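Collaborator request, handled under Task 6.
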Amino acid sequence: GAPARRLGRARMYTRWPGAMLLALTLTLTLTLTLAGAACSGASNAPAASFVGNDGTALYAQACAACHGADLRGTDHGPPFLDAIYRPAHHGDGAFLLAIRGGSRAHHWRFGNMPPIPGLTDEQVAAITRFVREQQRAAGID
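Structure tokens returned to the collaborator:
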């Protein structure tokens, strides 16, 4: 049954450590590829379902993969804790426009941002408030 199959896999990895390394490498590659595809707009996945109006939770679900859980950016998207995203340069409406229609790369070299379907205007406003709170805490006004 299932326990025997699991034991068989464990033995395979013990006998062939390269097999475990290959499995881990393939898993990591797939994960990074999917994250990169989502951040570059290459995904044809259906819209995510976002629930509630908590800006912190919504940011974690909809934005953090590309912009970083700490808002400091990733290899796939720019940081929001940067003077470029201060309210005087990118007003709150810019967040709604970018989420609805995507955004062409213009300050960074991450490629274009795809639209993020599935968020209501109220949810986008909650995300924007969260980002602004974090910016103020970092001295970006």
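The cover message to the collaborator said: "Confidence is low (pLDDT under 50) at residues 19-37. The CA atoms of residues 14 and 21 lie 11 Å apart. Please let us know whether this matches your experimental observations."
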